[in-house]
Specification:
The complex is a heterodimer of chains A (384) and B (174).
Chain A lengths: L1 H21 L1 H6 L13 H8 L11 H10 L6 H18 L1 H23 L4 H53 L3 H40 L8 H51 L4 H55 L5 H37 L5
Chain B lengths: L7 H25 L4 H30 L22 H19 L3 E11 L6 E11 L7 H16 L6 E5 L2
Parallel strand pairs in B: 2-3
Antiparallel strand pairs in B: 1-2
């Protein structure tokens, strides 16, 4: 109750002082401006947009795309976005054709060795030869995992550095759109939780998935000492950490927003009542114009949230497509080599594909978390 | 193996690399072992090595839960405390004496781990050791009584540091 009173007094003071400073007659005739300059510097967001990694090999210029979209040159519809993504996907697939060729050749050699093993009495030599082939596959897989991990970690870092200036600006807009309690509650919770969960996904979950996958691939080299239990346990732990932290984040955001909305309604209604009752003559006008200021801030907040969601989409879509193209290549190679009789090689290629999909899922989970946080902030409006 | 050294993920990376390399080498050794009665024993021995590696994180966690000090073998890349360099002369002297005392205590048979605090007498002239407090963790597998170890270390340290035996306090944890 004390906090609500403080906010109410603050709002009354802001409503009374602002027009006095600018001239009372001006306040009656001009379009109302935002109550105070926003504390965040929007140039930081521009800097981050211009420093985003350009997707290599696609001929795309993300900065140009953003400026075309924001200036209205290009209409951002489904076909335009799909065209961009498809162009990038085919560029990546073209880059990976050499990898596909190497995988198929390796698989053919390994199938040949397995057939020779059946033909000769002693299998030791054939097993060692198969292991040698498999180790070449391990080096190829390691380089693919390196590419995927680098792309995913880079995307996470880009998302975090984009959210760092965006969240304070959005929360300032939440406060100026008539939800100061929600803004006060969301500010520390959102920023710290977004950072903790995204850093955990980038620095713990993704490396653990890669380590488990590397162990799994090496485990296919020999059929004697099976370590598949260890690898599946590591993957389960990585998934559990990601799932739990996401659930925690979503729950906290929802509860904070719900708790803030109730207090905001009471605080704003108290402020309006106080200004219209106790300020003589012009009090009613202030309480009505406050409504308009809140709505204007709301429009600005919605626009910023939509822009933020768009940027998040463009930041993650290219790394995801890069990883998906690798998944496609490994899965295709597995499908091609299976009829040759290289059963172990085929299941190894399939497991590489599954691990890469897991990395995609982890990256998607981080992006979804940021989307949800933007949606919660965009929806954190005082109920009218 | 220490879970603290450099964070969880570098530690996990080292463990997975060790496990992967061991599994590769073990597979190779098993493949080139000639067929015969020896083969199954080789397989069991190699399997035991891999099981011990798989159990390593579990053992580290159990040790932490039981409050025992972890192994003193530092992982590769761990920074050891500096015994010289920055700091005042007295601090450098104390750090050097601490390092020496710990090294000497670990060389005594039956000592598993050691923690020590050195108090230096300052002011006027060269710094001198005023008091040494040593806490020991004994290895239960080595059949040696705590008091024997304590007396041996006390005599060794007081002789080495040139101080009264009363200034060297040795206690045994646990």
């Amino acid at each position: 109750m004390k906090r609500q009173c403080v906010f109410a007094l603050w709002l009354v003071a802001a409503i009374v002082v602002a027009p006095v400073a600018g001239g009372v007659s001006a306040a009656a005739t001009e379009v109302p401006q935002l109550p105070a300059p926003l504390p965040a510097d929007f140039r930081q967001i521009d800097d981050i947009l211009s420093s985003l990694d350009q997707p290599a090999g696609s001929g795309l210029d993300l900065k140009q795309v953003f400026s075309d979209v924001t200036s209205g040159k290009v209409r951002l519809d489904g076909s335009y976005v799909l065209g961009l993504v498809a162009r990038y996907l085919f560029g990546e697939l073209q880059l990976n054709t050499r990898l596909l060729g190497a995988l198929i050749v390796l698989a053919v050699i390994s199938a040949l060795l397995q057939n020779l093993q059946a033909g000769f009495g002693s299998d030791a030599v054939a097993r060692v030869a198969y292991a040698t082939c498999h180790l070449i596959l391990v080096t190829l897989a390691l380089s693919s995992f390196g590419v995927a991990l680098k792309a995913a970690q880079r995307a996470c870092a880009d998302l975090l550095s984009f959210m760092r200036p965006l969240l304070p600006a959005l929360i300032a807009l939440v406060a100026s759109s008539g939800a100061p309690v929600t803004a006060g509650l969301l500010s520390p919770i959102t920023i710290s939780t977004v950072h903790v969960v995204a850093s955990m996904a980038s620095e713990v979950v993704l490396p653990v998935i890669v380590l488990a996958s590397v162990l799994e691939i090496i485990n296919y080299t020999w059929d004697t000492f099976d370590l598949s239990g260890v690898t599946s346990f590591m993957k389960v732990v990585a998934n559990a950490v990601l799932g739990l932290s996401l659930a925690l984040f979503l729950g906290m955001m929802a509860v904070q927003k719900a708790a803030g909305a109730v207090s905001d309604g009471a605080a704003i209604r108290t402020a309006k009542f106080l200004s219209s009752t106790f300020i003589p003559v012009v009090g009613k006008m202030f309480s009505d114009s406050a409504e308009m200021v809140f709505s204007s801030s709301n429009v600005l907040k919605a626009a910023m949230s939509a822009g933020g969601a768009l940027v998040i989409f463009f930041v993650i879509v290219f790394p995801v497509v890069k990883i998906v193209s690798l998944v496609f290549v490994y899965r295709l190679a597995a499908a091609i080599v299976q009829p040759l009789g290289a059963k172990r090689m085929s299941s190894c290629l399939n497991s590489i594909g599954s691990s890469l999909i897991m990395m995609c899922v982890a990256l998607g989970a981080v992006a979804m978390m940021l989307w949800v946080s933007l949606a919660v902030i965009a929806g954190a409006t005082r109920p009218y | 193996m220490s879970l603290e050294a450099g964070g969880l993920v570098p530690w996990l990376r080292g463990w997975v690399m060790t496990l992967a390399l061991t599994s590769l080498v073990a597979g190779m050794a098993e493949a080139v072992t000639p067929d015969g009665s020896m083969r199954k024993y080789v397989r069991v021995a190699l399997g035991m090595i891999i099981v011990s590696l798989v159990l390593q994180p579990v053992m580290a966690i159990v040790q932490r839960v039981r409050g025992e000090p972890e192994s003193l073998v530092l992982p590769f890349g761990t920074t050891v405390p500096a015994v010289s360099g920055s700091g005042t002369g007295d601090e450098t002297f104390a750090a050097r004496v601490k390092w020496q005392v710990e090294t000497m205590a670990l060389s005594v048979e039956g000592v598993k781990a050691v923690s020590c605090r050195v108090t230096v007498r300052t002011g006027g002239g060269a710094p001198a050791v005023q008091r040494v407090d040593v806490q020991l963790w004994l290895d239960p597998q080595k059949a040696r009584s705590g008091s024997a170890v304590r007396e041996a270390l006390k005599a060794l340290l007081s002789a080495y540091l040139g101080t009264e035996p009363g200034n060297v306090v040795v206690s045994i944890a646990g």
